[in-house]
Write a structure and sequence with these properties.
The complex is a heterodimer of chains A (305) and B (265). Chain A has 305 residues and is of the alpha/beta class. Chain A has helices at 43-50, 94-102, 110-119, 133-145, 163-178, 190-196, 263-271, 285-294; strands at residues 3-14, 17-28, 32-36, 58-63, 66-67, 79-82, 151-155, 182-187, 199-204, 207-213, 222-229, 246-247, 254-260, 275-281. Chain B has helices at residues 3-32, 35-38, 41-48, 52-57, 62-66, 68-101, 105-108, 115-148, 155-179, 186-207, 221-225, 227-231, 237-260. The chains are: A alpha/beta (305), B mainly alpha (265). At the A-B interface, loops of A face helix 1 and helix 7 of B.
Protein backbone atom coordinates (compact mmCIF):
# COMPACT_ATOMS: atom_id res chain seq x y z
CA UNK A 1 0.00 0.00 0.00
CA UNK A 2 1.37 3.49 -0.81
CA UNK A 3 1.91 5.84 2.08
CA UNK A 4 -0.53 8.67 2.64
CA UNK A 5 1.61 10.11 5.45
CA UNK A 6 5.23 9.44 6.31
CA UNK A 7 7.14 10.96 9.21
CA UNK A 8 10.89 10.48 9.07
CA UNK A 9 12.85 11.40 12.20
CA UNK A 10 10.44 14.28 12.61
CA UNK A 11 11.64 16.59 15.35
CA UNK A 12 10.24 19.93 16.41
CA UNK A 13 11.52 22.17 19.15
CA UNK A 14 10.01 25.53 20.11
CA UNK A 15 13.20 27.23 21.24
CA UNK A 16 14.33 24.96 24.06
CA UNK A 17 10.92 23.39 24.55
CA UNK A 18 10.26 19.97 23.14
CA UNK A 19 7.47 19.56 20.63
CA UNK A 20 8.15 16.11 19.19
CA UNK A 21 11.33 14.06 18.89
CA UNK A 22 12.34 11.57 16.21
CA UNK A 23 8.89 10.53 15.14
CA UNK A 24 9.03 7.72 12.62
CA UNK A 25 5.89 6.15 11.27
CA UNK A 26 3.75 5.95 8.20
CA UNK A 27 0.03 5.87 7.55
CA UNK A 28 -0.97 3.78 4.58
CA UNK A 29 -3.59 4.85 2.09
CA UNK A 30 -7.03 3.63 3.06
CA UNK A 31 -6.19 3.36 6.75
CA UNK A 32 -7.95 4.91 9.69
CA UNK A 33 -5.08 5.79 11.97
CA UNK A 34 -5.61 6.89 15.55
CA UNK A 35 -2.97 9.14 17.08
CA UNK A 36 -3.37 8.99 20.81
CA UNK A 37 -1.67 10.77 23.63
CA UNK A 38 -2.32 12.88 26.69
CA UNK A 39 -2.55 16.65 26.43
CA UNK A 40 0.83 18.19 25.60
CA UNK A 41 2.22 14.94 24.19
CA UNK A 42 2.89 16.44 20.74
CA UNK A 43 -0.18 15.41 18.74
CA UNK A 44 -1.07 18.90 17.57
CA UNK A 45 2.58 19.73 16.84
CA UNK A 46 2.74 16.68 14.58
CA UNK A 47 -0.48 17.64 12.82
CA UNK A 48 0.51 21.29 12.38
CA UNK A 49 3.78 20.13 10.83
CA UNK A 50 1.84 17.91 8.45
CA UNK A 51 -0.36 20.83 7.50
CA UNK A 52 2.59 23.13 6.85
CA UNK A 53 1.72 25.55 9.64
CA UNK A 54 5.06 24.94 11.36
CA UNK A 55 8.38 23.73 10.05
CA UNK A 56 10.27 20.75 11.47
CA UNK A 57 13.47 21.42 13.37
CA UNK A 58 14.84 18.20 11.88
CA UNK A 59 13.58 15.29 9.84
CA UNK A 60 10.69 15.56 7.47
CA UNK A 61 6.99 14.98 6.97
CA UNK A 62 5.59 13.70 3.69
CA UNK A 63 2.09 13.50 2.29
CA UNK A 64 1.50 11.15 -0.65
CA UNK A 65 5.25 10.96 -1.11
CA UNK A 66 5.82 14.72 -1.32
CA UNK A 67 7.71 16.62 1.34
CA UNK A 68 5.54 19.31 2.91
CA UNK A 69 6.45 22.45 0.96
CA UNK A 70 7.25 25.58 2.96
CA UNK A 71 4.38 28.02 2.56
CA UNK A 72 1.80 25.36 1.61
CA UNK A 73 0.47 24.83 -1.87
CA UNK A 74 -1.31 22.52 -4.31
CA UNK A 75 -0.40 19.40 -2.31
CA UNK A 76 -3.34 20.22 -0.07
CA UNK A 77 -5.84 19.72 -2.89
CA UNK A 78 -6.00 16.14 -1.67
CA UNK A 79 -6.06 16.90 2.03
CA UNK A 80 -8.83 17.97 4.38
CA UNK A 81 -8.00 19.39 7.80
CA UNK A 82 -10.00 19.95 10.93
CA UNK A 83 -8.07 21.77 13.68
CA UNK A 84 -8.68 21.10 17.34
CA UNK A 85 -10.02 24.59 17.90
CA UNK A 86 -12.20 25.72 15.06
CA UNK A 87 -12.02 29.45 14.37
CA UNK A 88 -13.39 31.31 11.39
CA UNK A 89 -14.23 34.85 10.38
CA UNK A 90 -16.97 35.89 12.83
CA UNK A 91 -18.66 38.31 10.45
CA UNK A 92 -19.26 35.60 7.82
CA UNK A 93 -22.22 33.24 7.78
CA UNK A 94 -21.76 29.47 7.78
CA UNK A 95 -22.81 29.33 4.12
CA UNK A 96 -20.36 32.07 3.15
CA UNK A 97 -17.54 30.16 4.82
CA UNK A 98 -18.56 26.96 3.04
CA UNK A 99 -18.61 28.80 -0.31
CA UNK A 100 -15.24 30.38 0.46
CA UNK A 101 -13.70 27.00 1.34
CA UNK A 102 -15.27 25.38 -1.74
CA UNK A 103 -13.80 28.14 -3.91
CA UNK A 104 -10.31 26.76 -3.31
CA UNK A 105 -11.08 23.47 -5.06
CA UNK A 106 -12.09 22.72 -8.63
CA UNK A 107 -15.35 20.89 -9.29
CA UNK A 108 -16.83 20.71 -5.80
CA UNK A 109 -20.04 18.70 -5.73
CA UNK A 110 -22.75 20.94 -4.23
CA UNK A 111 -25.03 17.97 -3.61
CA UNK A 112 -22.31 16.43 -1.46
CA UNK A 113 -22.05 19.64 0.56
CA UNK A 114 -25.82 19.65 1.06
CA UNK A 115 -25.60 16.05 2.21
CA UNK A 116 -22.89 16.92 4.75
CA UNK A 117 -25.03 19.80 6.04
CA UNK A 118 -27.95 17.40 6.36
CA UNK A 119 -26.04 14.62 8.10
CA UNK A 120 -24.62 17.05 10.65
CA UNK A 121 -27.93 18.89 11.03
CA UNK A 122 -26.16 22.18 10.52
CA UNK A 123 -27.82 25.54 9.95
CA UNK A 124 -25.48 27.46 7.59
CA UNK A 125 -27.59 30.60 7.43
CA UNK A 126 -26.41 32.12 10.71
CA UNK A 127 -23.40 34.32 11.38
CA UNK A 128 -20.36 32.41 12.63
CA UNK A 129 -20.12 34.63 15.69
CA UNK A 130 -23.48 33.23 16.86
CA UNK A 131 -22.46 29.56 16.59
CA UNK A 132 -21.86 27.39 19.63
CA UNK A 133 -18.64 25.35 19.88
CA UNK A 134 -20.52 22.33 18.56
CA UNK A 135 -21.84 24.20 15.53
CA UNK A 136 -18.41 25.61 14.76
CA UNK A 137 -17.10 22.05 14.91
CA UNK A 138 -19.77 20.94 12.45
CA UNK A 139 -18.77 23.76 10.11
CA UNK A 140 -15.16 22.65 10.50
CA UNK A 141 -16.07 19.09 9.55
CA UNK A 142 -17.99 20.29 6.47
CA UNK A 143 -15.11 22.45 5.23
CA UNK A 144 -12.66 19.59 5.83
CA UNK A 145 -14.70 17.08 3.82
CA UNK A 146 -16.44 19.18 1.16
CA UNK A 147 -13.86 18.47 -1.55
CA UNK A 148 -13.80 14.72 -0.84
CA UNK A 149 -10.09 14.66 0.00
CA UNK A 150 -7.96 11.52 -0.31
CA UNK A 151 -6.61 12.19 3.16
CA UNK A 152 -8.33 13.88 6.06
CA UNK A 153 -6.40 15.03 9.13
CA UNK A 154 -8.59 15.52 12.17
CA UNK A 155 -7.32 16.98 15.43
CA UNK A 156 -9.65 16.05 18.30
CA UNK A 157 -12.63 16.01 15.91
CA UNK A 158 -15.41 15.16 18.32
CA UNK A 159 -14.81 17.65 21.11
CA UNK A 160 -17.91 19.80 21.31
CA UNK A 161 -20.15 17.37 19.44
CA UNK A 162 -23.09 15.77 21.22
CA UNK A 163 -23.30 11.94 21.33
CA UNK A 164 -25.78 11.71 18.44
CA UNK A 165 -23.59 13.86 16.22
CA UNK A 166 -20.54 11.82 17.17
CA UNK A 167 -22.41 8.74 16.03
CA UNK A 168 -23.33 10.40 12.71
CA UNK A 169 -19.80 11.65 12.28
CA UNK A 170 -18.19 8.26 12.84
CA UNK A 171 -20.66 6.61 10.50
CA UNK A 172 -19.76 9.20 7.88
CA UNK A 173 -16.03 8.63 8.37
CA UNK A 174 -16.48 4.89 8.03
CA UNK A 175 -18.47 5.36 4.82
CA UNK A 176 -15.79 7.63 3.40
CA UNK A 177 -13.07 5.23 4.43
CA UNK A 178 -14.80 2.41 2.58
CA UNK A 179 -14.71 4.66 -0.48
CA UNK A 180 -10.94 5.00 -0.08
CA UNK A 181 -10.38 8.04 2.14
CA UNK A 182 -7.42 7.83 4.50
CA UNK A 183 -8.20 9.16 7.96
CA UNK A 184 -5.59 10.37 10.43
CA UNK A 185 -7.05 11.54 13.67
CA UNK A 186 -5.83 12.49 17.06
CA UNK A 187 -7.84 11.99 20.18
CA UNK A 188 -7.56 11.32 23.85
CA UNK A 189 -10.83 9.37 23.96
CA UNK A 190 -10.10 5.66 23.91
CA UNK A 191 -13.63 4.74 22.92
CA UNK A 192 -13.24 6.63 19.61
CA UNK A 193 -10.12 4.68 18.80
CA UNK A 194 -11.92 1.43 19.58
CA UNK A 195 -14.78 2.38 17.29
CA UNK A 196 -13.09 3.06 14.02
CA UNK A 197 -9.31 2.78 13.97
CA UNK A 198 -7.33 0.15 12.12
CA UNK A 199 -4.01 1.13 13.64
CA UNK A 200 -2.91 3.29 16.51
CA UNK A 201 0.15 5.26 17.45
CA UNK A 202 0.73 6.30 21.04
CA UNK A 203 2.70 9.45 21.71
CA UNK A 204 4.00 10.59 25.04
CA UNK A 205 6.26 13.52 25.83
CA UNK A 206 6.96 13.99 22.14
CA UNK A 207 8.02 10.43 21.43
CA UNK A 208 6.17 7.60 19.76
CA UNK A 209 5.98 4.88 22.37
CA UNK A 210 3.76 2.39 20.62
CA UNK A 211 2.58 1.61 17.11
CA UNK A 212 0.36 -1.35 16.33
CA UNK A 213 -2.92 -2.56 14.92
CA UNK A 214 -5.82 -1.73 17.22
CA UNK A 215 -6.02 -5.31 18.52
CA UNK A 216 -2.52 -5.01 19.97
CA UNK A 217 -3.11 -1.72 21.77
CA UNK A 218 -1.79 -2.17 25.29
CA UNK A 219 -4.40 -1.76 27.97
CA UNK A 220 -7.17 -1.98 25.42
CA UNK A 221 -9.12 -4.33 27.71
CA UNK A 222 -8.32 -2.38 30.84
CA UNK A 223 -11.18 -1.50 33.16
CA UNK A 224 -11.14 0.91 36.03
CA UNK A 225 -12.94 -0.42 39.07
CA UNK A 226 -13.87 1.87 41.93
CA UNK A 227 -15.37 0.02 44.88
CA UNK A 228 -16.24 0.20 48.54
CA UNK A 229 -16.75 -2.93 50.68
CA UNK A 230 -19.03 -3.15 53.69
CA UNK A 231 -17.26 -2.32 56.91
CA UNK A 232 -14.55 -0.28 55.14
CA UNK A 233 -10.97 -1.28 54.52
CA UNK A 234 -9.40 -2.57 51.33
CA UNK A 235 -11.08 -5.42 49.42
CA UNK A 236 -9.44 -8.76 50.15
CA UNK A 237 -8.98 -11.95 48.21
CA UNK A 238 -8.72 -10.42 44.75
CA UNK A 239 -6.40 -12.09 42.22
CA UNK A 240 -2.75 -11.14 42.71
CA UNK A 241 -2.43 -10.22 39.04
CA UNK A 242 -4.87 -7.36 39.62
CA UNK A 243 -2.33 -5.57 41.80
CA UNK A 244 -2.98 -3.70 45.03
CA UNK A 245 -6.12 -1.50 45.33
CA UNK A 246 -5.31 2.19 45.83
CA UNK A 247 -7.38 4.36 48.22
CA UNK A 248 -9.35 7.10 46.49
CA UNK A 249 -8.29 10.47 47.82
CA UNK A 250 -10.98 12.26 49.81
CA UNK A 251 -13.30 9.22 49.86
CA UNK A 252 -12.50 7.06 52.92
CA UNK A 253 -13.24 3.37 52.38
CA UNK A 254 -13.24 3.70 48.59
CA UNK A 255 -10.54 2.00 46.49
CA UNK A 256 -9.59 1.90 42.86
CA UNK A 257 -8.08 -0.79 40.64
CA UNK A 258 -7.01 -0.85 37.01
CA UNK A 259 -7.61 -4.38 35.82
CA UNK A 260 -6.86 -6.19 32.59
CA UNK A 261 -9.09 -9.22 32.77
CA UNK A 262 -12.03 -10.66 30.85
CA UNK A 263 -15.37 -9.10 31.87
CA UNK A 264 -16.62 -12.48 33.16
CA UNK A 265 -13.71 -12.76 35.59
CA UNK A 266 -14.27 -9.20 36.82
CA UNK A 267 -17.97 -9.88 37.45
CA UNK A 268 -17.21 -13.17 39.26
CA UNK A 269 -14.62 -11.57 41.54
CA UNK A 270 -16.88 -8.63 42.32
CA UNK A 271 -19.76 -10.96 43.11
CA UNK A 272 -17.69 -12.55 45.89
CA UNK A 273 -17.33 -9.23 47.70
CA UNK A 274 -19.86 -7.61 49.98
CA UNK A 275 -20.02 -4.28 48.13
CA UNK A 276 -21.43 -0.94 49.27
CA UNK A 277 -20.47 0.76 45.99
CA UNK A 278 -19.04 -0.20 42.62
CA UNK A 279 -18.27 1.60 39.38
CA UNK A 280 -16.60 -0.05 36.37
CA UNK A 281 -15.44 2.24 33.59
CA UNK A 282 -13.03 2.58 30.69
CA UNK A 283 -9.89 4.50 31.58
CA UNK A 284 -9.19 7.86 30.04
CA UNK A 285 -6.06 8.17 27.93
CA UNK A 286 -4.31 9.85 30.84
CA UNK A 287 -5.27 7.01 33.19
CA UNK A 288 -4.24 4.41 30.64
CA UNK A 289 -0.86 6.05 30.13
CA UNK A 290 -0.40 6.38 33.86
CA UNK A 291 -1.19 2.71 34.35
CA UNK A 292 0.74 1.34 31.37
CA UNK A 293 3.73 3.60 31.06
CA UNK A 294 4.32 5.47 34.29
CA UNK A 295 4.36 2.59 36.77
CA UNK A 296 7.88 1.43 37.55
CA UNK A 297 6.87 -2.15 38.26
CA UNK A 298 4.22 -4.41 36.85
CA UNK A 299 2.75 -4.86 40.31
CA UNK A 300 2.00 -1.15 40.46
CA UNK A 301 0.76 -0.93 36.95
CA UNK A 302 -2.82 -1.20 38.04
CA UNK A 303 -2.59 1.50 40.67
CA UNK A 304 -4.36 4.33 38.98
CA UNK A 305 -5.07 7.28 41.20
CA UNK B 1 -2.85 35.51 -6.87
CA UNK B 2 -5.85 33.62 -5.52
CA UNK B 3 -9.02 35.17 -6.96
CA UNK B 4 -11.02 33.41 -4.26
CA UNK B 5 -9.00 35.12 -1.50
CA UNK B 6 -9.14 38.43 -3.35
CA UNK B 7 -12.96 38.33 -3.56
CA UNK B 8 -13.29 37.36 0.08
CA UNK B 9 -10.85 39.98 1.36
CA UNK B 10 -12.52 42.66 -0.71
CA UNK B 11 -15.89 41.71 0.76
CA UNK B 12 -14.54 41.60 4.32
CA UNK B 13 -12.86 45.02 4.01
CA UNK B 14 -15.47 46.78 1.90
CA UNK B 15 -17.32 48.30 4.83
CA UNK B 16 -14.16 49.67 6.43
CA UNK B 17 -13.15 51.14 3.09
CA UNK B 18 -16.47 52.95 2.72
CA UNK B 19 -16.32 54.35 6.26
CA UNK B 20 -12.73 55.59 5.88
CA UNK B 21 -13.43 57.02 2.43
CA UNK B 22 -16.46 58.89 3.73
CA UNK B 23 -14.46 60.25 6.66
CA UNK B 24 -11.48 61.37 4.57
CA UNK B 25 -13.81 62.82 1.98
CA UNK B 26 -15.55 64.82 4.71
CA UNK B 27 -12.18 66.27 5.77
CA UNK B 28 -11.45 67.18 2.15
CA UNK B 29 -14.82 68.90 1.75
CA UNK B 30 -14.41 70.76 5.03
CA UNK B 31 -10.90 72.05 4.31
CA UNK B 32 -11.35 72.85 0.63
CA UNK B 33 -14.66 74.66 1.13
CA UNK B 34 -12.85 76.81 3.71
CA UNK B 35 -10.63 78.35 1.00
CA UNK B 36 -12.76 81.45 0.21
CA UNK B 37 -12.96 82.39 3.89
CA UNK B 38 -9.25 81.96 4.50
CA UNK B 39 -8.52 84.72 1.98
CA UNK B 40 -10.20 87.40 4.08
CA UNK B 41 -7.89 90.14 5.52
CA UNK B 42 -8.93 89.27 9.11
CA UNK B 43 -7.67 85.75 8.67
CA UNK B 44 -4.39 86.93 7.17
CA UNK B 45 -3.88 89.26 10.13
CA UNK B 46 -4.61 86.45 12.53
CA UNK B 47 -2.04 84.19 10.86
CA UNK B 48 0.55 86.97 10.87
CA UNK B 49 0.52 86.76 14.65
CA UNK B 50 1.57 83.13 14.66
CA UNK B 51 5.19 82.32 15.64
CA UNK B 52 7.43 81.70 12.63
CA UNK B 53 8.32 78.15 13.70
CA UNK B 54 4.66 77.25 13.96
CA UNK B 55 3.97 78.73 10.54
CA UNK B 56 6.84 76.74 9.06
CA UNK B 57 5.70 73.57 10.78
CA UNK B 58 2.22 73.78 9.30
CA UNK B 59 3.04 75.34 5.92
CA UNK B 60 1.35 78.65 6.77
CA UNK B 61 2.79 80.86 4.05
CA UNK B 62 1.24 83.75 2.13
CA UNK B 63 1.08 81.89 -1.17
CA UNK B 64 -0.86 79.08 0.42
CA UNK B 65 -3.74 81.44 1.10
CA UNK B 66 -3.64 83.14 -2.26
CA UNK B 67 -3.51 80.21 -4.63
CA UNK B 68 -5.83 77.23 -4.39
CA UNK B 69 -3.26 74.82 -5.89
CA UNK B 70 -0.84 75.52 -3.03
CA UNK B 71 -3.60 75.68 -0.48
CA UNK B 72 -4.81 72.21 -1.49
CA UNK B 73 -1.31 70.73 -1.71
CA UNK B 74 0.07 72.24 1.50
CA UNK B 75 -2.94 72.73 3.74
CA UNK B 76 -5.38 69.98 2.73
CA UNK B 77 -3.20 67.16 1.44
CA UNK B 78 -1.05 66.76 4.59
CA UNK B 79 -4.19 66.11 6.63
CA UNK B 80 -5.56 63.75 4.00
CA UNK B 81 -2.23 61.93 3.98
CA UNK B 82 -2.29 61.75 7.77
CA UNK B 83 -5.60 59.89 7.55
CA UNK B 84 -4.82 57.79 4.49
CA UNK B 85 -1.48 56.66 5.89
CA UNK B 86 -3.18 55.63 9.15
CA UNK B 87 -5.82 53.74 7.17
CA UNK B 88 -3.27 52.17 4.82
CA UNK B 89 -1.01 50.95 7.62
CA UNK B 90 -4.01 49.69 9.59
CA UNK B 91 -5.48 47.87 6.61
CA UNK B 92 -2.19 46.29 5.56
CA UNK B 93 -1.45 45.23 9.15
CA UNK B 94 -4.92 43.84 9.72
CA UNK B 95 -4.98 41.91 6.44
CA UNK B 96 -2.12 39.78 7.74
CA UNK B 97 -2.33 39.86 11.53
CA UNK B 98 -6.04 38.99 11.57
CA UNK B 99 -5.26 35.41 10.55
CA UNK B 100 -3.08 34.93 13.61
CA UNK B 101 -5.40 36.86 15.91
CA UNK B 102 -8.58 35.00 14.95
CA UNK B 103 -6.68 31.73 14.54
CA UNK B 104 -8.02 31.54 11.00
CA UNK B 105 -4.49 30.82 9.76
CA UNK B 106 -5.32 27.16 10.38
CA UNK B 107 -8.10 27.51 7.83
CA UNK B 108 -6.54 29.80 5.26
CA UNK B 109 -2.97 28.53 5.19
CA UNK B 110 -3.95 24.89 4.88
CA UNK B 111 -5.80 25.45 1.59
CA UNK B 112 -4.22 24.31 -1.69
CA UNK B 113 -2.86 27.79 -2.33
CA UNK B 114 0.61 28.98 -1.39
CA UNK B 115 1.00 31.73 1.20
CA UNK B 116 2.58 33.87 -1.49
CA UNK B 117 -0.56 33.67 -3.62
CA UNK B 118 -2.72 34.44 -0.59
CA UNK B 119 -0.62 37.47 0.29
CA UNK B 120 -0.63 38.57 -3.36
CA UNK B 121 -4.44 38.60 -3.22
CA UNK B 122 -4.40 40.63 -0.01
CA UNK B 123 -1.88 43.11 -1.40
CA UNK B 124 -4.02 43.47 -4.53
CA UNK B 125 -7.07 44.29 -2.40
CA UNK B 126 -4.97 46.86 -0.54
CA UNK B 127 -3.69 48.39 -3.79
CA UNK B 128 -7.14 48.51 -5.33
CA UNK B 129 -8.63 50.21 -2.29
CA UNK B 130 -5.85 52.78 -2.04
CA UNK B 131 -6.00 53.61 -5.77
CA UNK B 132 -9.80 53.90 -5.57
CA UNK B 133 -9.56 56.11 -2.50
CA UNK B 134 -7.09 58.51 -4.12
CA UNK B 135 -9.02 58.56 -7.39
CA UNK B 136 -12.15 59.52 -5.48
CA UNK B 137 -10.20 62.17 -3.55
CA UNK B 138 -8.84 63.60 -6.79
CA UNK B 139 -12.25 63.72 -8.43
CA UNK B 140 -13.85 65.24 -5.35
CA UNK B 141 -11.09 67.86 -5.19
CA UNK B 142 -11.68 68.79 -8.83
CA UNK B 143 -15.40 69.24 -8.26
CA UNK B 144 -14.99 71.20 -5.05
CA UNK B 145 -12.18 73.40 -6.32
CA UNK B 146 -14.27 74.26 -9.35
CA UNK B 147 -16.99 75.36 -6.98
CA UNK B 148 -14.85 77.47 -4.61
CA UNK B 149 -12.38 78.97 -7.09
CA UNK B 150 -13.57 78.36 -10.68
CA UNK B 151 -10.85 77.85 -13.28
CA UNK B 152 -7.91 78.13 -10.85
CA UNK B 153 -7.34 74.47 -10.09
CA UNK B 154 -4.59 73.03 -12.28
CA UNK B 155 -5.71 69.48 -13.02
CA UNK B 156 -2.30 68.23 -14.21
CA UNK B 157 -0.38 69.61 -11.25
CA UNK B 158 -3.03 68.31 -8.90
CA UNK B 159 -2.85 64.91 -10.54
CA UNK B 160 0.84 64.81 -9.56
CA UNK B 161 0.00 66.03 -6.07
CA UNK B 162 -2.54 63.25 -5.65
CA UNK B 163 -0.23 60.67 -7.21
CA UNK B 164 2.43 61.68 -4.68
CA UNK B 165 -0.22 61.27 -1.95
CA UNK B 166 -1.09 57.81 -3.24
CA UNK B 167 2.57 56.75 -3.30
CA UNK B 168 3.12 58.07 0.23
CA UNK B 169 0.05 56.12 1.36
CA UNK B 170 1.36 52.98 -0.35
CA UNK B 171 4.71 53.44 1.37
CA UNK B 172 2.97 53.52 4.76
CA UNK B 173 1.15 50.32 3.75
CA UNK B 174 4.42 48.74 2.63
CA UNK B 175 5.98 49.38 6.03
CA UNK B 176 2.93 47.79 7.67
CA UNK B 177 3.11 44.77 5.32
CA UNK B 178 6.71 44.25 6.41
CA UNK B 179 5.81 44.43 10.09
CA UNK B 180 2.49 42.56 9.97
CA UNK B 181 3.84 38.98 9.93
CA UNK B 182 5.55 39.76 13.24
CA UNK B 183 2.27 40.95 14.76
CA UNK B 184 -0.23 38.45 16.10
CA UNK B 185 -2.99 40.83 17.17
CA UNK B 186 -5.26 43.07 15.16
CA UNK B 187 -5.19 45.65 17.95
CA UNK B 188 -1.40 45.87 17.61
CA UNK B 189 -1.78 46.39 13.85
CA UNK B 190 -4.24 49.20 14.55
CA UNK B 191 -1.82 50.79 16.98
CA UNK B 192 0.95 50.49 14.39
CA UNK B 193 -1.23 52.27 11.83
CA UNK B 194 -2.07 55.15 14.13
CA UNK B 195 1.51 55.47 15.33
CA UNK B 196 2.89 55.45 11.80
CA UNK B 197 0.38 58.02 10.51
CA UNK B 198 0.76 60.46 13.39
CA UNK B 199 4.46 59.76 13.63
CA UNK B 200 5.09 60.85 10.04
CA UNK B 201 2.88 63.90 10.43
CA UNK B 202 4.41 65.14 13.67
CA UNK B 203 8.00 64.40 12.70
CA UNK B 204 7.45 66.29 9.46
CA UNK B 205 6.07 69.29 11.36
CA UNK B 206 8.91 69.11 13.88
CA UNK B 207 11.56 68.92 11.17
CA UNK B 208 10.44 72.30 9.83
CA UNK B 209 10.61 74.17 13.11
CA UNK B 210 14.39 74.60 13.34
CA UNK B 211 17.41 74.05 11.16
CA UNK B 212 18.80 71.53 13.65
CA UNK B 213 15.83 69.22 13.21
CA UNK B 214 15.79 69.50 9.46
CA UNK B 215 17.32 66.04 9.05
CA UNK B 216 14.16 64.49 10.50
CA UNK B 217 12.26 65.17 7.29
CA UNK B 218 14.05 62.25 5.68
CA UNK B 219 12.19 59.93 8.03
CA UNK B 220 8.72 60.93 6.87
CA UNK B 221 6.73 60.20 3.74
CA UNK B 222 5.85 63.92 3.43
CA UNK B 223 9.34 64.90 2.36
CA UNK B 224 9.43 62.31 -0.43
CA UNK B 225 5.89 63.16 -1.59
CA UNK B 226 7.07 66.73 -2.27
CA UNK B 227 3.61 68.29 -2.37
CA UNK B 228 4.94 71.82 -2.78
CA UNK B 229 7.06 70.83 -5.81
CA UNK B 230 4.16 68.96 -7.37
CA UNK B 231 1.86 71.97 -6.89
CA UNK B 232 4.49 74.13 -8.58
CA UNK B 233 4.45 71.80 -11.60
CA UNK B 234 7.82 70.23 -10.77
CA UNK B 235 7.05 66.85 -9.18
CA UNK B 236 9.78 65.42 -6.96
CA UNK B 237 10.32 62.29 -9.07
CA UNK B 238 13.20 60.77 -7.03
CA UNK B 239 11.12 61.12 -3.88
CA UNK B 240 8.10 59.53 -5.51
CA UNK B 241 10.24 56.70 -6.83
CA UNK B 242 11.64 56.23 -3.33
CA UNK B 243 8.09 55.95 -1.92
CA UNK B 244 7.27 53.33 -4.53
CA UNK B 245 10.43 51.44 -3.58
CA UNK B 246 9.49 51.54 0.11
CA UNK B 247 6.15 50.01 -0.77
CA UNK B 248 7.69 47.33 -2.98
CA UNK B 249 10.50 46.45 -0.59
CA UNK B 250 8.21 46.47 2.46
CA UNK B 251 5.73 44.22 0.71
CA UNK B 252 8.50 41.91 -0.48
CA UNK B 253 9.76 41.64 3.10
CA UNK B 254 6.19 40.86 4.17
CA UNK B 255 6.10 38.01 1.64
CA UNK B 256 9.38 36.65 2.94
CA UNK B 257 8.38 36.83 6.61
CA UNK B 258 4.90 35.41 6.05
CA UNK B 259 6.38 32.54 4.06
CA UNK B 260 8.59 31.67 7.02
CA UNK B 261 6.10 32.41 9.78
CA UNK B 262 5.07 29.54 12.02
CA UNK B 263 1.50 29.37 13.26
CA UNK B 264 1.66 27.61 16.59
CA UNK B 265 -1.88 28.50 17.68
Amino acid sequence: MPEAIALVNLTKYYGKNRGVENLNFAVEEGEIFGFIGPNGAGKTTTIRTLMGLIRPTAGEARIFGSTIPPGGGPLYHQVGYLPAEVNYYPEMSGQELIDYAAGFYPRVDRRWIRKLVEILQFDPSRRIRTYSTGNRKKLGIIQALLHRPRLVVLDEPTSGLDPLMRQNFFNLLQELNVLGMTIFFSTHVLEEIERICHRVGLIKEGRLIHLSPLEELPGRRMKLITLEVSGGGPPRGLPESWGQPVPVEGRPGRYRLAVQAPPGEIVREMARLDLEYIQISDPSIEELFLAMYDAPEKGEAANVR
Amino acid sequence: MSVNVFRQEFRLNRRGFLIWTAMIMAVLVLYLSFFPYIQSPEYSELLEGFPAALKDAFNIHQIVFEEINYYHALQVLPYLLLLTSIYAAMLAGRLISREADLNTAEFLFTRPVTRNRILAAKVTVFLLMMVLLWMLLYMAALVLAAAVDPGAFNTTRQLWVHLAGLLATLAAGGIAFAAAPLINQVSAATTLGVALGFGFFLVDALSKTTEKLHFLRYFTVYYYAGFEDAAAGKPFYPGMLFLLLVFLLGTALGFLLLHRKEYTG
